[in-house]
Amino acid sequence: PEAVIFPASEGRENHPGPFPQGIADIMRRTRIGLFCAALALPLAPGSLPSAAAEEAAPPIRILCDFESDADLKPWVFDPKDGAARVDTEVLHGKGALRFSGTARIELGGDLPNDFTGYDRIGYLVHNETDQTVELDLVLDVGRPVRSKSNGIPPGRIGREYCLLDGLDAEYKKNVKAIRLEVIGKGKVLVDCLALLKAGEKIPLIPK
User: 10 Å Cβ neighbour count for 50?
Assistant: First the structure.
């Protein structure tokens, strides 16, 4: 059977957990309140990360950035979905993928399939349409594990995340493929699919 974990988007986050939605909302508001209270406290010397520490952070692990047509080789598309690499409305680097329906990337070989040590999968997205688009991310770990979409509003440009800390360690060691699914009608622009550690963000070209 398909398991479900929950995504996080820039500015909003649904964290995987066993809590009912009402309790999860209370906990989320509590965390926000504690965070705001912490902001009011004086900071101890040296409590902020130094520039040297930030520079020492490991780089994000980009799985695909759609820089050239060669980047499409590990992907599988349904021909009727009209998937195409574009270089006019990119969000990162020199190219992006515009598609509807389903896009699947096979892992292994040159692409890492051991996600141990990473906290999330991130990607950039642009909803160019005038309707909300549901975009799910599904991991193939021997069974499908789905990260449900929060819904991408019309015109939204931003970062989307699939949190991995709710995934069993054994599953993280052998991820066979990643599948992006547009639920229903709609078409989106996706760029820079990457593995991230806590605190890392994919650079986003300002629009």
Answer: 9
